[in-house]
Structure formats: C-alpha cells, structure tokens
Amino acid sequence: MTGCATRQSAGAVDVVVIGAGHSGLAMSHVLGQRGIEHVVLERGEVANSWRTERWDSLRLLTPNWMTRLPGYSYRGTEPDGYMSAGEVVDFISAYATVTSAPVLTHTAVTGVVPIGESGNGYQVSTTQGEWRYRAVVLATGACNLSVVPRLAEAMPAGVEQFTAQTYRNPQQLAEGGVLVVGGSATGLQLAREIQESGRPVTLAVGEHVRMPRVYRGRDIQWWMLASGVLDQRIEDVDEPDRARRVPSPQLVGTPERATLDLNVLRIQGVEVVGRLAGIRDGKAQFSGSLRNVCSLADLK
Amino acid sequence: MTTQTKTAENGVNVAALLGAREALAEAPEAARFKWRATSEWLKGTHSRATVDGFYGLGGEQKHRQSYQFCTDHPEVFASEDNGATPVEMVLVGLAGCLSAGIAAVAQHRNIQLHSVKATLEAGMDLQGILGIDPNVRNGFDGIKVHYEIDADATAEQIAALVAQSQKRSAVFDVITNPTDVTVTASKT
Lengths: 300, 188
Fold this sequence. Notes:
The complex is a heterodimer.
Chain A: H1 7-10, E1 15-18, H2 22-33, E2 38-41, H3 48-52, E3 68-69, E4 72-73, H4 85-98, E5 103-104, E6 109-114, E7 122-126, E8 129-133, E9 135-138, E10 178-181, H5 185-196, E11 201-205, E12 209-210, E13 214-215, E14 218-219, H6 220-226, H7 240-245, E15 249-250, H8 262-268, E16 271-274, E17 276-280, E18 283-286, H9 290-299
Parallel strand pairs in A: 1-2, 1-9, 2-5, 10-11, 11-16, 12-15
Antiparallel strand pairs in A: 3-4, 6-7, 7-8, 13-14, 17-18
Chain B: H1 14-26, E1 38-43, E2 46-56, E3 59-71, H2 86-108, E4 113-123, E5 142-151, H3 155-167, H4 170-176
Helix pairs in contact in B: 2-3, 2-4
C-alpha cells in the first residue's frame, strides 16, 4: 500500500479513482493539488497491468523524453530511448511515491451503481467493502479486454490461441508455424520475435498505418508533437468515428531506433498475407486486399 | 489575383450520396438491401439472366427497365458462344464497381475526370475445373486491373482515388473475401 489512505477514511472522501496506473495517479495528483479528497483503488499493485499483462520484450512506442506526467518526468540518461515494461512499472511506482498518492492496493472494484437521482453519488462495491463517493473516475485503462474476433471460434481445437495479454515470449508457443493476426505495432513486433525464434510466421494484415521511426534525425513522435497532430482533439475532426477507427501506427521502440514495417518482416522471412477473413473446414482464408491496404497505408 | 473555384462535373450526385449516407446511418433497416437476378438455362452452356427488381430502402424497388445478360462458353470449348463466359461477367462487375467508385470519390474530392479506362485480366488454370489436378483451384488464380485515367489531378491523387475506390467497393470485397453461399434446388 502506498500513501496514507486507510479503509476508515475511504468512506468519507469525495472522489474515488479506479486504477493506479499512470492515468489514475495523474488524476490523483491534480485532485490533490486542488485539495479534493480522494482515494485510488487498485485491484493489484501500482502499475498492475504493466506488471502482469505485458509481453517480455515490450517497450513503449514513445521516447523517454515524452514520458511525463503532471509534476513528474523521465530523469534518466537516455532521453531518446524507449522504456521496457519493467521500467514503466518503476516509473509509475516512483510517481506514486513522489506524489504520495492515496492508493489502496489489492482492492478490486466489483461494481459501481449510482445512488438515486443523479448528483447523489455512487455506491462502490469492492473486495474490501462497500463505499459511497460523490464522484467516480474510471482510470482502468483502454486495453484491459482483448478484442478477439468471433471467427476465432472456428479455429480448430488443436490450434492454441493467445492474445497480446496472455502472450509473453516465443518459448511459450509450440514448435511449428504461427499465425499472427493484426498488422499494427503489436502484430509486427510479435511476428518479428516469433520468426526469430525459428517458428515460421504468417502475418495477416488489414488496414494499417506505416511510419518511419526516425525522420531527419528526429523521432516520428517528435514530429507528431511538433506538428500538432497529438494535440488534435476528437471534437475537432470532421468524422470522429472514422478518426477513431484509424489503426495505430506500426512502430517499435529499440535502442537502434529502427523502423519496423512489412518490408522488414518479409526480408526476415515472414509470410505476409491479407486480413484474416474466415476459417472454413479448418483452413484460414485471407483477404485478397493486401495490395490495396499497403497502398492506402502510404497514400494517406 | 482572382481564384476560380471550379466544381468537377463527373455526373455523380455527391450531395445525394452524402445525404443517403446520413439518412441510412439513422435508419439501419432501410440500409439493408437485397440484390437479385434470375436465370434460365437455354441450351448447352447458354443461359440468360434477367435483372429487374431489388429490395432496399424498406421496400421493393425496380430498375428503370429490365436488363438481360447472356452467358455462354466460347467455341474453343465446343460451345456456341452466345455471350460472355460467367467468369468474364465477374470481371465486368468488378470493373463497373471500381469505376463507379472512382467517379464518386473523384466528385467528392472535386477532381474532374476526362477518361477512365480499365483493362482487366484474370488467370485461370483449367486443370482445376476439369478435375485434372485437385491442387488447382476452380476460380481465378489472380485478377489484374489496370486503370488509365485522364483527370485534372496529380498521379498521386489518381492513385489515391483508385485505392479509396477499392476500399469501398462491394464487388472488390465479394471477390477478395469469402462469402457464404447457399444453393438449394427444388423439383418443379
């Protein structure tokens, strides 16, 4: 447990923040600055999903100098490097300590129900008891549940399936061919390391966004920040639904600041195929649209 | 300096298309269409298909007139060649769909088209349909479509038109992705 919150005081505070990751802790910090009493409930430890739901080789896609939270930022010696998952855990944990965040760890929230008419607050059920709060901040993360396409149900039972949350490293996988479904950062990174492990990889690729890691000596994230792309708000785009559906970029954070795209994987021996479109009679069917999605990735 | 803003004239009513998009987003039932064709075998490999009605916008619809298409096989297959082969009709459908898409996207992007010519070619190994080699598929082993486009646009803008048209093409999707097909029969 971090900070000074106790079970007794939790029931009397105004605001509950659910989740002690970077968002929840940043929220806690700014609430504290405004003198708003609050508590942060965390199902496990601080930075829990970074401890328990990341593959071994994962590094952030943003350079260290961009890794900053309200009142705290990267202080290491490699501003152009990319943090490993373990380093992210250390970073977030240090933030919780520095900000004296009132975190109750091992307190999983099991339900949030509004009390009566709106404005009366919320009844929050947890594994440590029932509490009432005036306001609830959900900071549980945007990627807590894997989205597994329904066609996965048609996969023959003998084929072991993993999601990015359950995958750790290639050694976890049986010997033999591996199908990686998805052509954004995760799919490309996993395809690369699984292929390197000697398991021949087929990578199913739909629409994607290709980017160089470095352009004119600067990280692509520097350009996106400098050009205002990262400041664009969803309210300001013409078609928000379409904007939300734009795939996240194909990127990887490596010490060499290398670009990872389909060409790199093909040279490595990965077989790149179209989007996984169906499974019939135990055979995977791939879309014939690969050429066009590759064109679209460069024409945007 | 005066700037003249010209509106492209490709014969596509983009306002109507955008209006339909907005209306159908609000009315998912009306957006569900059923396309239909009937076909009658005449003789040998010769059949005549008719297209006249379809379902959409919540009700039965009619084409302006009924259209008929003959399919047959060529003389090298010992047929009478009374029409295009069915696989050529697939190419016809793909070309019509992609070109319509190019026109619509061009109109939306205010790009004036002058000519849009497509050349299509599909490879097929007859050892498949003749049952000679079970490893050869019946259908095409690939389709190549080449567009020659004259338009008031850069080569890159034209490439983007063609790419966007494929992204939103129904026939491109039908061909590139598996579709569940149910064929039943009854005795009359």
